[in-house]
What we know:
CATH topology of the largest domain: Nitrilase/N-carbamoyl-D-aminoacid amidohydrolase
Number of domains: 2
Radius of gyration: 27 Å
Strand content: 15-25%
Structural class: alpha/beta
Amino acid sequence: xxxxxxxxxxxxxxxxxxxxxxxxxxxxxxxxxxxxxxxxxxxxxxxxxxxxxxxxxxxxxxxxxxxxxxxxxxxxxxxxxxxxxxxxxxxxxxxxxxxxxxxxxxxxxxxxxxxxxxxxxxxxxxxxxxxxxxxxxxxxxxxxxxxxxxxxxxxxxxxxxxxxxxxxxxxxxxxxxxxxxxxxxxxxxxxxxxxxxxxxxxxxxxxxxxxxxxxxxxxxxxxxxxxxxxxxxxxxxxxxxxxxxxxxxxxxxxxxxxxxxxxxxxxxxxxxxxxxxxxxxxxxxxxxxxxxxxxxxxxxxxxxxxxxxxxxxxxxxxxxxxxxxxxxxxxxxxxxxxxxxxxxxxxxxxxxxxxxxxxxxxxxxxxxxxxxxxxxxxxxxxxxxxxxxxxxxxxxxxxxxxxxxxxxxxxxxxxxxxxxxxxxxxxxxxxxxxxxxxxxxxxxxxxxxxxxxxxxxxxxxxxxxxxxxxxxxxxxxxxxxxxxxxxxxxxxxxxxxxxxxxxxxxxxxxxxxxxxxxxxxxxxxxxxxxxxxxxxxxxxxxxxxxxxxxxxxxxxxxxxxxxxxxxxxxxxxxxxxxxxxxxxxxxxxxxxxxxxxxxxxxxxxxxxxxxxxxxxxxxxxxxxxxxxxxxxxx
Length: 634
């Protein structure tokens, strides 16, 4: 047996906090080393924080990362464990996203990322240069390029995030060059359903390359990007470790590298491919560690949890519904909490609680973060923290119903959140009178103007509250309404952080149904009883103003996500919703396409939003559409 203990360290980094990030990394590496780890993987851009974007154009920012890497090496020099950590380095006139191998106080080598994503939320090719096969150089006197590392336990290769997502990445040639363990440093953002894709892909790569893949994920939120952390260890296609997500810490497992060696010998296809590669491809440079690594004498052979090599493991402890809801709730709550704490600008968090679904979900998410952050202090201390940090405001007008007021009051009590009730009717009347003075002959206040005035009064009050209470004002509009402009510029589109701007209304309802099942909170039940309504006019209902939300969300997914024409969307929806007449579907589809295009100017003005899927309404991150356009093409 050739046993090796590998550890995945998940660090919650802040962009630019190079000293604090390294402090956190050193602490966690020491914990992993004390647990017996010999090889420790940390995330991509662990020193800089991810994503640094154009900060890397400041030379001092890049130089500070090297200084901190040297400090990391110095502060872990008494450890015999090997650490792999991510940062940005400068080579000539080019910047590289690299993984650095550190052992016994020395930086042994730097391996640059080769696959630079330039899609969805990624812009790496804008600022970084690519590593290439066969590259050999030095940076600060340290080997740089296409490297593998020989230690007393075996051969290790390094790659960075996207390199793993391509079947033709550097893993193939480095495995052929002798690497038995591939350490992948990742800062892959959270996306709904992506964890299953990651696990399957990592197992596949480990099998295709007959190696052990160690994947370490970044955890935490920076701006609107959410990172769920966790990680995997897969050996020759078999998953050995799935690390917990949404938490900072480390996870470890023991592997037998003799198994990888044996399976390579047995797999004639892999051996034939390796022989062909060795005769035609550029060589990979080997770096040999001079000092011994951590003792492995105390390690024991990894025994399956159920003590059987033939029987399946324990059945899943959760349902797909629970996994979906808990993942999304945890991601959004983390996004609120990290934004609140990392910016350093806020002391409180405020929600304009309308008695409706969107604002209730946002308040629940903020409260969920309180539980995650302070729950270990005990129930009473947690409730105290909630009452200290969270604030809810119900600002009724003449159109607000008694039902929504009751729902808001009960929900605030359920969540231990102070609620202030501040009517806006007097201000509404005064504002209408003042606006009348601005109108020219023949102009008059329309229905839409009367509705939007109410939303703007509420937003103005929330902003003034933030100035007085150092408050983080959460914007509560959902993706469905944002997509078709069912929002008010200067009103419900206002806030410092858009929490559910990338969560469709059907998902909002689904999450609230799930939370009601789990908690039994009366405030949720009261909110769900009443049809969704902005309550800016008598007898107003959102779906009557627009269309059924399942239809609207399907229009959005097909038109904006699948890039279908309105005619193709219409054709799909007729099959998808047979309960509605084809003429009705046709009218809804035509209306959606018109509203979507006409509303781009609105949603490009919304606050920074949390990203939870591949299809986001964010012009800087995901769906880049011109504001000024015509749809004559469709």
